[in-house]
Amino acid sequence: MTGVTPAAGWHRTVALLLASSTGGVGQHVRSVARGLAGAGARVLVCGPAATEEQFDFTGVGALFRPVEIPASPTPADARAVAALRRALTAEPVAVVHAHGLRAGLVAVLARPAAPLVVTWHNAVLARGLRGGLSRLAERVVARGARVALGASADLVERAATLGATDARLAPVAAPALPAPRRRRAAVRAEFGVAADQPLIVSVGRLHPQKRYDVLVDAAARWRGRTPPPVVAIAGSGPAYLQLAARISAARAPVTLLGHRTDVADLLAGADLAVVTSDWEARQLFAQEALRAGVPLVATAVGGLPELVGDGAVLVPPGDVDAVDAAVRELLDDDTRRAGLGRAGAQRAQAWPTEADTVAELAALYAELAPDADATSTGRR
Q: Which of 107, 120, 127, 349 could form a disulfide with 98 if both were Cys (CB 3.0 to 4.6 A apart)?
């Protein structure tokens, strides 16, 4: 990483804890681990073995210890608590920083001697028994953490309402994408997109929260356009089979790409990006689209309005008609679409960078657990 400020020169050991992740949280933890290790801190990442396989935390300078925390609560949580305690005993740390509610709950139950920071990345949307258990976990985590960090203002407010004594906003910066490896024409050729045919892209985990059913239903209406757009959704997750069946039944012009590592290429070939989630904080794909200058249609939920400002078209969540109308208007107006892409790119320039995020976290760690040399010389 470049541009790390002097505040990132905290040299003690931090443990970063995460639960099962295939997307944004894992990417964020990798970014933080890379930045902190590069600035002189010792970083221990604890999480499911599968996260190390996907995100390669050791490859960016961190230590890794397996702590199996599944996405949903199970009796195995007791084993996760025990595993975390062993990891923290083997590698004494100055600060423990858990990412997400599941990791936060395990960390609180482990009762680490070091100050505990928990970043709230997501809101609880589940209902019924699972929702009730998650809301109980929210309260335990809010009251058990020394500092609660919210990725969006509504999460900060939620943590404070539930009893957090110190709740702060800590925006999550999307890791910078590499330059596209393929030309626009080559990307579009992969999906059989003609020169005058729109390509609409969305990237995210295939999970009910992302509401890809709304995008599929809107896309089914676009079959009659001339030429019809091609919609490509990149990501994997538990909603794959239901979405595939919905696409087939609606004869929607949608392709499920599975997990992709070439998001920069997809954006280079795209005419429009769409986010249809029921809730997001600072969704990574929304950040990536605006940085790339790709016009974005997104739902006005969570932290998205604050994130994108006037750099995207915002629509209500769960509203097929609104998504349909917003996409049609942009596809029918080349000038407006180009202007929106420029506005989004300009908006993105004001966002905190990865280096800013790392420096802010290092300053927090130094506040909670100052370096020994800083304490001895009176520097804080």
A: 107
Q: What is the pTM of this model?
A: 0.87
Residue type, 273: A
pLDDT at 132: 77
Q: What is the pLDDT of residue 129?
A: 73
Q: Are residues 88 and 27 in the same domain?
A: yes
Q: What is the largest CA-CA distance in the chain?
A: 72
**What pLDDT score does 374 carry?**
52
Q: What is the dihedral of CA 109, 51, 279, 216, to 10 degrees?
A: -150
Asked whether residue 178 is assigned to any structural domain, the reply reads no
Distances (CA, A) of 3 to 7, 212, 315, 355: 11, 37, 36, 6
CATH number for position 318: 3.40.50.2000
pLDDT recorded at residue 229: 97
Q: Are residues 216 and 328 in the same domain?
A: yes
312 and 232 fall within a common domain: yes
334-348 vs 320-331: helix crossing angle, rounded to 10: 110
**Residue 117 parent element (H or E):** strand 116-120
Regions of the chain where pLDDT drops below 50: 1-8, 375-380
Please give the residue range of the domain that contains residue 277: 184-348
Distance CA 278, CA 250 (A): 22
The reply to whether 179 falls in a domain is no
